[in-house]
């Protein structure tokens, strides 16, 4: 079996996945870069990383809308590599569907990409690690909305909540083999999926209702993923780590602002 450290990252052609590849790329490491579309883009990413970091970068086509085919493709790449040390389940799709107009076809797609395929891939990778005696790491990218609801988010929130619970169950089952399973739960992040095409502009975007006042940059999320994937987080498993700029802290704020301005005066104020 190859002794080269190997990491598989889904959705690696852009956004958080591409930033995670940059964060993990170094000489002596092999990166399996999963993508669904945009073969030219992923090859450009792979070539640039290989040239600038010395890591071996291998594009792997994996369209998570078809979980079985995606897992087969990824595991074939893992078998060719000879080992797998880390899986980053990053690929995902956003969705804002009105609760009174949910479509089963769209539900199938959202759950396939956000929950079913990552779960199946984590299962297959975990099996490969156990078989090879690798004390590896799996990091799932969920969302602040795995616990915080948002209007129009029935499919998205439910799918991310499912992946969050999968994280905890796999951590429980894989821990005896030295395999850690954690999740990163980002808040709003400046990516094309969220309508931001200049990822470097995140500090210039105002979000006054987020305590830190802005969305996250992809490198900020990627650095957390890299930490959880690495030996510095060797005693962390089953955790869901929020990286949301404090968004989850604000749930009662809007109501509080309203409540404290509409409290009726007391009829008999104290003397």
UniProtKB/TrEMBL annotation:
Q: Name one GO molecular function term.
A: oxidoreductase activity
What Gene3D superfamilies does the record tag this protein with? NAD(P)-binding Rossmann-like Domain
What Pfam families does this protein's entry cite?
A: adh_short_C2
The signal peptide here is: none
**What InterPro entries does UniProt report for this protein, alphabetically?**
NAD(P)-bd_dom_sf, Sc_DH/Rdtase_CS, SDR_fam
Alphabetically ordered keywords of this record: Oxidoreductase
Q: Which CDD domains match?
A: SDR_c (cd05233)
Q: Which family does it belong to?
A: Belongs to the short-chain dehydrogenases/reductases (SDR) family.
Q: PANTHER family from the xrefs?
A: OXIDOREDUCTASE, SHORT-CHAIN DEHYDROGENASE/REDUCTASE FAMILY (AFU_ORTHOLOGUE AFUA_5G02870), SHORT-CHAIN DEHYDROGENASE_REDUCTASE FAMILY PROTEIN
Q: What is this protein called?
A: Oxidoreductase
* The species this protein was found in: Streptomyces caeruleatus
Q: What is the lineage of its organism?
A: Bacteria, Bacillati, Actinomycetota, Actinomycetes, Kitasatosporales
């Amino acid at each position: 079996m190859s002794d080269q450290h190997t990491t598989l990252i889904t959705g690696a052609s852009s956004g958080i996945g591409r930033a995670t590849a940059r964060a993990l790329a170094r000489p002596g490491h092999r990166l399996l870069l999963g993508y669904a579309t945009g073969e030219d883009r992923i090859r450009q990413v792979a070539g640039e990383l290989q040239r600038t970091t010395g890591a071996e970068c291998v594009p792997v086509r994996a369209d998570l809308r078809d979980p079985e085919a995606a897992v087969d493709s990824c595991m074939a790449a893992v078998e060719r590599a000879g080992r797998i040390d880390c899986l980053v389940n990053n690929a995902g799709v956003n969705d804002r569907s009105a609760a009174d107009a949910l479509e089963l076809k769209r539900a199938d797609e959202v759950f396939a990409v956000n929950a079913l395929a990552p779960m199946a891939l984590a299962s297959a990778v975990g099996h490969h690690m156990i078989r090879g005696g690798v004390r590896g790491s799996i990091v799932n990218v969920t969302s602040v909305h795995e616990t915080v609801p948002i209007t129009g988010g029935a499919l998205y929130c439910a799918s991310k909540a499912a992946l969050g619970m999968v994280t905890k169950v796999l951590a429980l089952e894989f821990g005896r083999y030295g395999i850690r399973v954690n999740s990163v739960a980002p808040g709003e992040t400046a990516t094309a999926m969220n309508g931001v095409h200049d990822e470097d502009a995140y500090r210039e975007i105002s979000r006054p209702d987020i305590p830190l006042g802005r969305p996250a940059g992809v490198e900020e999320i990627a650095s957390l993923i890299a930490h959880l994937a690495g030996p510095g987080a060797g005693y962390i498993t089953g955790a869901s780590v929020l990286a949301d700029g404090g968004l989850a802290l604000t749930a009662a704020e809007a109501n509080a602002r309203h409540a404290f301005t509409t409290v009726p005066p007391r009829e008999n104020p104290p003397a």
